[in-house]
Design a protein that fits this description.
By secondary structure, this protein is mainly α. Helices cover about 60% and strands about 0% of the residues. The chain is elongated, with a radius of gyration of 31 Å.
Length: about 425
């Protein structure tokens, strides 16, 4: 039986041919324009009919149009799909619910962390009936092949869990990623598999490939996957994260610098220090370099790593003069403000390179320097309180109340606030 949409198309084409034939039988010198006009009208009619047919087909398949979806609440969506018992959702209903994600626009703007879909009624509806949903495993092979990227993206989003991605899910991903080209879906896949590089060589290869993708938003996610502690020991991660510190995109560079310390390999230090010593580099990326270094020697909240060289390079950066609003980066100075109640003492006993006197002297010099960023001068009061003796913190009061510049009062208030804890 001929599909009704196909019948409509054939009818329009036949009409166009018939009309063209009538004019062609008595063609004169002026008939060319008439024929072209007639053909154009027939083509436009065909396009309009196709558009209408596609809309009708979508409605037939889902029972919902884009216009209806946009006006719905999550309760109305569930009702439209026949989901009346939130404790008992069938596989078919779950599949139909996930497929309505095709109505949700993908946000793709200038922000490095865009390429996502906003909170929407489909996700709200899923949350509302979550207890009654069958396992996503029952529909994942359908949705991961769906023609709509929003639906395929959900397949990858659903793979991630606190306990990691199941081997079956990784196997399904491997079967489908080779032919995946949509940036939204690829980003979702990188996100889902970000902690699995050590588990499966294919995943590692995929993440490395995505770290060279033309879209910086995908490279940004890949840098997070490569430079996390779950990727320690995977061949090539250290070398690749160092390469990504020179990515053409500034945000990708920053993330690579920031994540580098999580690999706990001192080979990253040389490039981090080169960036810190470059007067042309921006302060925000220098701050991320310090984050990478501090993870190597302080590693809050775990306190499990002890790179003396990383500590020394951090102190060198914090000690540089002349200071200004951007140097040293103010946020980097607050990286050691906190400590773990359970592991700090053991770390302090093993971190023989760490000097209370050195920290105190460097930070006091910054507090006294009115050219330094005032947020830095204020913020490091907590670091002194965290790491230095009660006597040193008490002595800091005289330093703070000896300040006379325009930010003195703010710094003094911060001292009193910290002293009250």
């Amino acid at each position: 039986m001929i599909n009704k949409n196909l019948r409509k198309k054939i009818g329009i084409v036949c009409l166009a041919l018939a009309m063209t034939g009538l004019y062609a039988c008595g063609k004169t010198d002026d008939s060319k324009d008439t024929t072209e006009s007639t053909t154009k009208a027939a083509t436009e009619a065909t396009s309009a009919t196709e558009a209408k047919s596609e809309e009708e087909t979508t409605e037939e398949e889902t029972g919902i149009t884009q216009e209806q979806y946009d006006a719905m609440t999550e309760d109305e969506l569930l009702e439209a799909l026949g989901i009346t018992d939130p404790e008992n959702v069938t596989e078919e209903q779950y599949l139909a619910l996930v497929q309505t994600l095709k109505f949700v626009p993908i946000i793709d703007d200038d922000r490095i962390d865009s390429l996502y879909i906003e909170n929407n009624i489909t996700k709200k509806a899923i949350s509302k009936v979550r207890k009654g949903l069958p396992s996503v495993d029952t529909i994942i092979e359908d949705i991961i092949k769906d023609e709509n990227p929003q639906v395929r993206g959900y397949a990858y989003d659903s793979m991630f869990s606190f306990f990691g991605v199941k081997e079956k899910s990784i196997s399904i991903a491997k079967e489908n990623l080779e032919n995946e080209t949509n940036d939204y879906v690829l980003k979702a896949a990188v996100d889902a598999l970000s902690n699995e590089m050590a588990k499966d060589p294919y995943v590692a290869e995929f993440i490395f490939k995505m770290s060279k993708h033309e879209n910086p938003k995908i490279r940004y996610k890949a840098s997070m996957a490569i430079g996390n502690s779950w990727s320690i020991g995977v061949d090539g991660t250290v070398e690749r994260i160092i390469e990504m510190m020179d990515d053409e995109n500034h945000d990708v560079r920053k993330m690579a610098c920031y994540e580098s310390g999580n690999l706990h390999d001192e080979k990253v230090i040389d490039r981090l220090v080169e960036i810190l010593n470059d007067p042309n580099e921006k302060s925000d990326i220098k701050g991320k370099c310090v984050s990478g270094l501090v993870t190597l020697w302080y590693d809050y909240p775990f306190h499990k790593h002890f790179s003396e060289r990383a500590y020394r390079e951090t102190i060198n950066y914090w000690s540089k003069t002349p200071r200004d609003n951007d140097n040293p980066d103010w946020a980097s100075l607050t990286l050691i403000n906190n400590k773990s109640d359970t592991s700090y003492d053991d770390w302090r006993a093993q971190a023989t390179y760490f000097s209370e006197d050195e920290i105190y002297n460097v930070f006091v010099a910054i507090i006294q320097d009115e050219n330094a960023n005032w947020l830095a001068r204020q913020g490091i009061i907590k670091a002194i309180h965290t790491h230095c003796s009660a006597e040193k913190f008490a002595a800091l009061k005289d330093v703070v109340y000896g300040l006379t510049d325009s930010k003195a009062e703010l710094i003094q208030k911060e001292y009193e606030n910290e002293a009250s804890k």
